[in-house]
From TrEMBL:
<dbReference type="InterPro" id="IPR058913">
    <property type="entry name" value="Integrase_dom_put"/>
</dbReference>
<dbReference type="InterPro" id="IPR036397">
    <property type="entry name" value="RNaseH_sf"/>
</dbReference>
<dbReference type="InterPro" id="IPR012337">
    <property type="entry name" value="RNaseH-like_sf"/>
</dbReference>
<feature type="domain" description="Integrase core">
    <location>
        <begin position="1"/>
        <end position="145"/>
    </location>
</feature>
<protein>
    <recommendedName>
        <fullName>Integrase core domain-containing protein</fullName>
    </recommendedName>
</protein>
<dbReference type="Pfam" id="PF24764">
    <property type="entry name" value="rva_4"/>
</dbReference>
Amino acid sequence: WKIVIHEAVDGYSRAVVFMKASDNNRAETVRNLFLKATEEFGAPSRVRCDHGGENVEVAALMENQRGPRRGSAIMGRSVHNQRIERMWVDVWKDVVNVFYSLFMSMEARMENVDEGILDIENDAHIWALHYVFLPRINHALDLFSVQ
């Protein structure tokens, strides 16, 4: 469905710093979310990221702002980031699962119908899915974040 959820959690308080669904996994998107969060909460001492290409600009910002060789951007496998991995379990259960089930049913073939109402190979269908559901997913993520 080409929907990506980006999330940052404060390692000390476990507060959600940002959580947003978007239609891409670009480094620019993550950087913009990070910059907006630093305007609201201030810059962190360190960030922990996986090695995904979407995190390179955040790592570069941290190295530039806090200085090199001090561990400003700790890169590693996401399984070592226990707080965010645990959060994903709850995000799936409380938010994503609802949309996943809906989208799967929209794709499903129904009786007397050759195909479902959503064709993931059709760019217009994906555009419409994003147009209709990204705001709803983000609203659900916002509600989850403040609980």
